[in-house]
Amino acid sequence: MSESKLSTMKKIIFLIALFPNILLADDFKMCREIASEINSSTPMNIDETTRLVNAKCISNSKKGKKVKLKYSYKILDGRVSKKDIQARRTEELNKWCTKPDLNFKLNTFDIEYSHSYMSDKYISSINLTIKDCK
Q1: Helix, strand, or coil here: 57?
Q2: Handedness of CA 72, 99, 24, 28 (dihedral sign)
Q3: Quick check: is 12 in a domain?
Q4: Cα-Cα-Cα-Cα dihedral of 65, 69, 128, 78, to 10°?
Q5: Rounded Cα distance, 27 and 108, in Å
Q6: Could you tell me the residue range of the domain that residue 40 belongs to?
Q7: Strands of 50-58's sheet in order across
Q8: Which of 18, 46, 87, 120 could be 50's S-S partner, Cβ–Cβ 3.0 to 4.6 Å?
Q9: pTM of the model
């Protein structure tokens, strides 16, 4: 590697270490674009009991923490429990870990599926990170 390329790489690494929020700002912007695209189709029924209400991005100011893409769902059937929601985790994780486009997003963002009843009473969340794929 040439001396000038090595010098440029060192500068980039130094800037990333010094200003990690610059990268997070880009990730947050990308996340907001994805959420906006999702929200252009909401509300959307996913199945007989689940409606996607919206998606939003949550930035994390802690060093080394990623932006979170949060999907908010309403459960239309009052008989769905926390246990029922958590039973979906394996299927969701498999999807995010094996589909290349979703895996790319999971490398960039943490994911949360938040579930509430129509009355806004919170039920449960499914949280996914890239570490869950290993």
Answers
A1: strand
A2: negative
A3: no
A4: 140
A5: 7
A6: 20-133
A7: 44-45, 50-58, 67-75, 109-117, 122-128
A8: 46
A9: 0.77
The Cα 69–Cα 130 span in angstroms is 13
Length, in residues, of the chain? 134
Return all residues near 72 (Cβ < 8 A) that are at least 6 apart.
Answer: 52, 53, 54, 55, 56, 114, 116
Domain total of the chain = 1
In a domain, 13, yes or no: no
Question: What percent of the chain clears pLDDT 70, i.e. is strictly above it?
Answer: 78
At 38-95, the pLDDT tens digits run 999 999 999 999 999 999 999 876 666 789 999 999 999 888 999 999 999 999 999 9
In a domain, 76, yes or no: yes
CA 104 to chain centre: 11
Helices (H), 40-130: 82-86, 89-98, 100-108
